[in-house]
Every structure is written in C-alpha cells, then in structure tokens.
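HOLO CASE FILE
Compound: 4'-deoxy-4'-aminopyridoxal-5'-phosphate
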Amino acid sequence: MSQMASDTGAINLSQGFPDFGVAPELIRLMQEALEQNHNQYAPMAGIPALREAVAKMTSSLYGAEYDPDKEITITAGATEALYAAIACSVFPGDEVIIFKPAYDSYEPAVRAQGGVPVLLQLQGPDFRIDWEAFASALSTKTRMVILNSPHNPTGTVLTRDDLQALDTLLRPTDVLVLSDEVYQHLVFDGDTHQSVCRFPGLRERSFVCASFGKTFHITGWKMGYCLAPAALMREFRKLHELLIFSVNHPAQHALAAYMENASHYETLGGFFQKKRDLFLSALEGSRFRFTPAKGTYFQLLDYSAISSEGDLAFSEYLAREVGVASIPISVFNLNREDHRQLRFCFAKTRDTLLRAAEILRRL
Ligand code: PMP
Ligand code: GLN
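Model generated. Tokens follow.
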C-alpha cells in the first residue's frame, strides 16, 4: 500500500510509521556515537548500558526485574526478536495459538519451523479473546501462544482480567508465551499497559518483544529487544547469534543515553492520544463508523455505510481514486473478504491527518 500511495500520490495512512521527524536530541546522540567511533561490532547480546536502560524501564513501569546479563537481548527490531523466539521454541508438529486478526509475521514464522498455527478469531466489535475457546484449543501439542497488546490492527488492549485468565489456564501446562508489546507505551484514556511480565506466573514462561523503532519514531533504524527468563534467553541467543550476531552499535549508544530521560517514553501515550482524537474529531459527520482505538497508532474505520465492496477492493479504490491509502484488515490472517473495515495509521502530522480526514468526510 505504501508503494501504491507513492505511485498515486495518495496520503499514506497505510504502513505503520510516523511522517514527522525524530527528536533532535536523539539525532545528536547518534551523531555523537558515530564520532566516538562506536562503529565496530557490538557485543552479541547488546551493549550493557542499553540492556541496563531496558531493565530499569521495565522495573519502573511493570515492577518486573530482568537481569541485563542473562535475560535481555538487543535485537534488529521486534521482527527479529519474534522470529528468534519462535525459531528457538517451536519444532515440527508443535501447535501455536494465534489470535486473528494477527500481525502478519507470526503465522509464516511458525510454519517455517514446521509448527502448526491454531488460529482463534477475536470476538465482538471490540475484538476480545474468548477464553473458553482458548481453553478448548489448548492441547498436549500446544507449545506456545502469541499475544499482541496493544493490538495491531484493531487498537484493542488486553485487560488485567485477560492476563489473569491466561495465567490461570496456563498454570497446569508448560506452554510458552510470546508477547508482542511493540506498542507498550501507546495506551490511551488513562488506561495502563498490562505487560505479561507484571504476572509472575506468565513472566517465567514468556518472551516479551519490543521495538525502539515504534517507541522513538525510528522504524528505519530497525532496533528492538527481547526479555525472557535466563533458560529461555539462552536458547534465544543461540538463534540471535546465527541470524544476525549483533545489532547496530552506534544506535545502541544513542538509545541508552536517550532513555536516561524517562519522559521520552512516558509521554508517548498522551502524544498519540491527541493525534487519535484530532483524526476522529476531524472525521465527525463522515459516514465511517468507529470505536476509538484504546492503544497503538492505528484506527479501524468501518465503511459499510459507504460501500458493500470487499476491503481489498475498497482500499484500492480509496488509494487510487480518492487519495487516501489504508490497509484492508483481511490481510491480517483473516483470509476472507467479508470485512468492511480498514486500518488507518494516525502517527502523522496534524496537517496530514486533517487533509486525509477532509477527503474521507466527503465519501
Ligand atoms: N509487531 C507488531 C505488532 C508491529 O506492528 C510491528 C511493526 N513495526 C512489529 C512487530 C515489528 O517491529 P520492528 O519494526 O521493530 O521490527
Ligand atoms: N508494523 C507496521 C505495520 O503494521 C509495518 C511493518 C511492515 O510493513 N512490515 O504497518
């Protein structure tokens, strides 16, 4: 869709990345790191200062302690962390429970290991997990469950009750959890992010994957990290070492210094909530229907009052003929075209959001 947007000149609210600049301080820290000649290989697990910064943030936000030496690894984006966590845990015939709609890298990564994805549909207008259906899906072959909260593409967030239900259901099992928390700081309306690491029973069986790219508006740097208990992290690092060995060195120094100021991540929820509210209030009077996203920087819009076309066809029409690019949600493992919802990224400047909403209001 980004390619289509650039070919047609449509306003690009499709792929999830900001169209505004990076904090000048972070750019300056990156320049300093280059000048200080941090230009050779970094240590395999990441530089100690960045692993310590992650440990400190995780402790202060979620009350969970991770040992920077043995339980934290810096990765090439969350994408590498997700793949390495799956590849070091899932073996042929293992079942992996995935909730759909789901981010597009989970299912193919499971299949690449010979694993068997067990896809469960999120329920209702607010895309909740049906814990009874989950309990029935658990089998002796279940190796892992993949969670994503705040959730791409629906913008929903898991509650404390959800995680307690998961904790209880997994207690008698040795099922692993892969928790994709790349939007951990983007939770709105006074809510707080329920990281799996807040729950000791889940922490001990979980890989938590996160993204500096999503957090600090630097998706092109491809920087992320993984948290896991030492025994799981040992296996993870064997794969990390083979896949990539070590991650961009100057960026690690820049991020470690930037994270010393906690306001750089603590203010992100409010920042993106304002963007969501601006976009949605500018859509007032349009024929799109929506429930405001509770987290992430994505908003689903229901176009059933405008067209009965499938979402692939409608999103293409919107990009080519109307001038706004979005993502049809059927591409998130839904594999069918009976959805009348599109995903719009609101990590954009005020001007971009207002211009897009103005066009959408006319439909
Ligand atoms: N998980 C989800 C849910 C995402 O939306 C993304 C997209 N950025 C990723 C993982 C990948 O993150 P990264 O860009 O850090 O590889
Ligand atoms: N995570 C981003 C999204 O959902 C983009 C990542 C990608 O294009 N692979 O839009």
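CASE NOTES: Residues 15-16, 152 surround glutamine (ligand 2) (CB under 6 Å). The two ends are 20 Å apart (CA to CA).
CLOSED: yes
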